[in-house]
Amino acid sequence: MRIAIYAFTGITMFHLSVPQMVFDEVTRQGLAEWETVLFADDTDPLTTAEGYQITGVSGPEAAADAEVVVVPSWYDDGRPADRPLRRLLVESHDRGATIAGLCLGTFPIADSGLLADRKAVTHWQGFAQLTQRHPDLEIDDSVLYIDHGDVITSAGTASALDACLHMVRTRLGSDAANQVARSLVIAPHRAGGQAQYIQRPLPERAEDDPISEVLDWAVNHLDETLSVERLAAVAHMSMRTFIRTFRSSTGATPASWVRMRRLDEARRSLETTDSSIDQIAADCGFGSVVTLRQNFAAAFRITPSEYRRRFEAQPSSP
């Protein structure tokens, strides 16, 4: 199988190397004859984000007979893809090639129209810009990659490894993917989705926002019962007025806002304290470990215990 990987000036070495590393390992392990080739808009030398110069890159014609065309990243500013690249992606797709957009590489795939009315994923920092440019696109932050069969997109940075391993798995089977993963010393499957990595700071609010005071109060009383009735009372509003004003100010319902603040506090506690899961559940207002686990898994596709092992900032006990 021939795999064409798009390169451009300013790409990072990591993004460029991931598909080559995974797919070339298939050949190195004797699992299949897979060939990767780098192509760009022209054959001029490229300078990477780290300042290295790459020569010997092929032109667009190198993708003409590729069975997979990969855009492994994209410009940090998310600029629209030029017409020649969009046309190359569409023509490759039309002749049956699989198109893969890894990390911000989802942007040019979307610009080409291949993701219209479909789900996609990209680096979480690009969500807002991508959805603004392509409102018909549904972003899913709960997964590390999405495979439509003909088009695959992945979440940020290291998720490209997951997507490339997935492509090995779908074409050569789980045993082959596991062998490649072992050789590269990476996990064949990773738990959870991109949502676990997204920072969700509280939005800035105007000082005269009537909801500001109740939001600040709620954040400091997460361990208590925070019903809509109680929040409305703190805001000195009727229930109806409070719900309407709350949604206008935050873009969320009171219940969903409180739930996310509790989850944010649970994540912070898991990362920075040695409190038990039971204690964290109580401190964050979930009432029970079961409720915490259910809400945590639904939001981040990972258990609180696994999250703590992955992100714990406290030094391990001897």
UniProtKB/TrEMBL annotation:
Source superkingdom: Bacteria
Keyword Phosphoprotein assigned: no
Residue span, HTH araC/xylS-type domain: 212-310
One Gene Ontology MF term: DNA-binding transcription factor activity
Keyword DNA-binding on entry: yes
CDD domains reported for this sequence: GATase1_AraC_1
Keyword tags: DNA-binding, Transcription, Transcription regulation
Full protein name: Helix-turn-helix domain-containing protein
UniProt organism field: Brevibacterium koreense
Classification lineage: Bacteria, Bacillati, Actinomycetota, Actinomycetes, Micrococcales
